Amino acid sequence: MFKLNEDILFLIFEELKNDSKSLFSCLMVNKLWCEIGIPILWKDPWNYKINYNNKAYLFTIITFYLSDDIKDFLERQGVQLPSVSAQSLSFDYLSFCRSINIDIINEIISIGSSLAYNQFLLQQEFYSLFIKKLPELKWLDMRSIKHQIFYLSEANTRLESLYELKCDTSINATYFYGIARICQYIQKLTIVNIKPKSNYGIAKLIEVQENLKYFKWIDDFDDDNFTNPYKEIFLELGKKADTLNHLELLFFYVDNFDYHYTSLQMLLPKLHKLKTLITNEFIYDNDNILKMLVYNDLEVLNIIYIPIYEASIIIGNSGGHLKEVSLKPYDFAYYDGDFKEFSLTFIRKIYENCPLIEYLSLVFSPSKDHFIEFENLLKGCQNLKLLLLITSNISIRYQTEDIIFENGKELLKILIRSAPAKLRELRFFNDFKFSLEALEEFLENWRGRPAITILTNDPIYEGEDYKKLINKYENDEVIKNFKYEYPVNMEDLNFRI
């Protein structure tokens, strides 16, 4: 068998580091593959979709590193430890590790004992072991933490190199004060808001960071005693405008959303270096403030609920670097008003300001003017790879099925004439419908181009005649996939079949 160079194997395995099934399979090929793969696997061994509390070998490996005195003490407390000889391990596994995940370690600990006190003892020893043994600590997920690890011996040396931290708002503020004393160069910070009240420890942790680039906030609570947890956090984030380039805010919808609405309005105009802006709610009722949202470096704009007028202003104020615009503008679903004019403006803003766009969701009202501007967009945005077309419910409501089919036919003709060469996926949301004849004409004209993936949330294509047509062009490799998909997946431009 042809022998691959070790450096090439390393690069291949690095690409597989998030694909546990493939990486584990590579370990079984031969000794060389195993020796190259194990350090990659153990750099972040908690980052795999496996059932950790059934993986006794992980418990065995970690307990192997405990001193005999500690093992004797734990066994006297009733902890069941595996018998491991000095020659049992083929690798010094923990020497490769650069991460700690408290939740998963706690799952593994449950193998040794079901008693709360014994698990507490095991946690203490495992955390102490990792802090001592790891050459450096890059990633820490401290959700569910029960021990103040920053007091452990060598904690200063290990924690000062921390690159990424995940935590939640249930953790006592004193834990964050301890982390803040040591860790001042965290670049990625993710916070899960499970206890919605002010946590000044998190605010302090953000305050002391000197190079915070990535911030993610996720609301995940079920608590009627809601108090504003955002004010202090967002106030400190605003002071990180010179370094922060990724902002992701996923809010929970509460009856009174003024808590995050007001804080967000104050925060966003300050963050002038953003490259990524992701949030599920965005409403500005002040044009003067809205026009202050100037992001010259913006590459990803992903907002679920946003008026199309506001989205157009943000895109118009971007610096020409946008590669993804993923929106679900709520205007068209609930309100007619000036939607047609606003949506035309939106299309123009895309092709005037986004020459590099690759992934785009486009709100579309079928009309002559919209078709003209849509074709202009296709001609001007030659890097498009994925296009999601969302039809206005307002306009569809008053159209017959014949008109809907005619609009669909015109849309497909435009795609044949002007679709960029890189376009690989089309998604049709709401009431973009195509007759059997129009779809066949489109697919026949697509022949000779790279195979196209088409997703739709319309069950019409589940019919027997459509399935027969689709199967024909799949067999001819004109279609890569043609699938009826759930709306939530359709709207997510990062979703892949």
From TrEMBL:
InterPro entries: LRR_dom_sf. This is F-box domain-containing protein.
